[in-house]
Amino acid sequence: MGFLRDHTAMVTGGVRGIGRSIVLEMARRGAGVAVTDINTDGAENLVREIEFLGSSGLIIKADVSDGAQVQNTVDQTLAEFGKIDILVNNAGITRDNLLMRMSEEEWDLVMRVNLRGAFLCTQKVIRPMMKQRKGKIINVSSVIGIMGNAGQANYAASKAGLIGLTRSTAREVASRNIQVNALAPGYIETEMTAHLPQDVKENYVNAIPAKRPGSPEDVARAAAFLASPAADYITGQVLNIDGGLLIA
After folding, report:
1. What does the alpha-carbon distance between residue 179 and residue 226 come to, in Å, rounded to a whole number?
2. Alpha carbons 174 and 172: distance in angstroms, whole number
3. How confident is the model at residue 104 (pLDDT cuts 50, 70, 90)?
């Protein structure tokens, strides 16, 4: 069902993992997709998959924490597609460590990519969206940004910051018909979680009422919903995709 036909999406960190699934879901729904990533290995295969789904794809190598590279990404996307209807701030990294052992570099790097990157991409995309008087911005946060997690103070702080960025930006641009929302995935099976010890994985699953980990496709379908006309009156919200992990 092509409810995003004639739309353009820009997805950061979109070559692997959750980002890749979001890219393919947007393409499946009819959107042209500009994909940014700092590591573009395998990007040619991704473009072929996008084209197989009947959409157009553009791969741009970029560091989202660098303002000049972000501006270049936006400029290239506008030159290729003429507009940006959807921004998905998905790029993110982890550098886990206990707070007392965490280096300043581990803290700064995670904050730079996860939070500064989303700020820069949002700032550069807001102007063209305001001119066209419509747009959807989706920030990929995490349940860790809501509940916290030992050994992930930097990651939790960055993802909590994304929620604050989401709500503040939503208030600023709602009158211009731009909706800004966040996704908060729980335990999702990706390359990032594959390295976890088996007992840790089992503990995560046991804490989830659904008794299974999520898939990248679970997150991608939620992103497509928030990007769709069905979500035109939803803004400033956080949608947990966690199998019930955060049920109060």
Report:
1. 9
2. 6
3. very high
CB of 46 within 8 A of CB of 57?
A: yes
* Residue ranges of E strands in the chain: 8-12, 32-37, 57-61, 86-89, 135-140, 178-185, 238-241
CA distance 70 to 164: 21
Structure tokens that stand for 91 in this block: 């790029």
CA 179, CA 134: separation in Å to the nearest integer? 8
Residue 37 in this model has a pLDDT that exceeds 90: yes
Rounded Cα distance, 149 and 63, in Å: 27
Count CB atoms within 10 A of the CB of residue 8.
23
7-22: pLDDT as tens digits: 999 999 999 999 999 9
For residue 187, indicate whether it is catalytic: no
Q: How far is residue 194's CA from residue 116's CA, in Å, rounded to a whole number?
A: 26
Mean pLDDT (whole number) for 195-217 = 89
DSSP state of 111: H
How far apart, in whole angstroms, are the C-alpha atoms of residue 64 and residue 13? 9
> What is d(CA 31, CA 45) in angstroms, rounded to the nearest whole number?
18
CA neighbours within 13 Å on the CB side: how many for 14? Answer: 30
Can you tell me the mean pLDDT for 53-68? 97
Q: Structure pTM?
A: 0.96
Which residue of the set 155, 187, 204, 233 is catalytic?
155
Predicted confidence (pLDDT) per residue in 125-161, tens digit: 999 999 999 999 999 999 999 999 999 999 999 999 9
d(CA 186, CA 211): 12
Token pair belonging to 231: 């979500």
